Amino acid sequence: MVLRRLSNKLRDLTGSPYVLFPTLVFAFFVFNLMSTKVMSQLSINLLDSYLVGYTKYQATQTLELLGPKGRALYMTMYTNYYDIVFPILLAIIVISMLSKTYPIFGYENQKSISDLYNLIPILGLIFDELENFCHYQILKNYPSSAIDSYIYFGSYFCLLKYVFIFFGILVLALGFFINTFLFIKYVVFSRKRNSNQVNNNNNNNKKLK
Predict the structure, then answer these.
(1) CA nearest neighbour of 116 among 1, 4, 199
(2) Spatial CB neighbours of 4, under 8 Å, sequence gap ≥ 6
(3) Do residues 132 and 141 touch, judged by C-beta distance below 8 A?
(4) Considering 43, 126, 128, 165, which has the largest number of Cβ atoms within 10 A of its Cβ?
């Protein structure tokens, strides 16, 4: 199965802490740059921040409120590659964490749909980058009517981006709690089993005497 092979390949590439921790540091660095150089200097919500997409009115109002300088600054999110690189890093981080979380503890040798959960961030990444392309074209062509189609598709890409981001985080959190519960259960039963074995051995030794 192609998806399973892709999932296993991603697990091999990103499952190591030597991949996760440097990516976390780099992602923090890029996000800090993006925040200080762009987002903190703009006092209104950007198109990226609409969790359920945006209407044409909301998009054009945002662009008008930004003004020429604000739109030029917003454009640097894409021309300086901040919002191109950051989604890639975020996807790698979540893929790595999902690859370590699934398969569930104790079920590593059993194939299930949960093995493919580390593919969820790939979908979020695709829609994020498509959204970024639309936003770049909107800023580049504003106030031309050519932006209408980019606003239409950009809104849907924005919505789908957040759907897969939040779904990936939800699946990750759920897997973490399930693994924690199963691990604790395993430790408790192992101790009980070992204790019972020790008691049985002691009883057998007494009988032999």
Answers:
(1) 4
(2) 111, 115, 116
(3) no
(4) 128
Global pTM reads 0.85
SS (H, E, C) the chain: CHHHHHHHHHHHHHCCHHHHHHHHHHHHHHHHHHHHHCHHHCCCCCHHHCCCCCCHHHHHHHHHHHHHHHHHHHHHHHHCCHHHHHHHHHHHHHHHHHHHHCCCCCCCCCCCHHHHHHHHHHHHHHHHHHHHHHHHHHHHHCCCCCHHHHHHHHHHHHHHHHHHHHHHHHHHHHHHHHHHHHHHHHHHHHHHHHHHHHHHHHHHHHHHC
Q: Spell out the residues 6+ positions from residue 159 whose beta carbon is closer than 8 angstroms to its own.
A: 51, 52, 53
Task: State the pLDDT at residue 86.
Answer: 96
Mean pLDDT of 69-84: 95
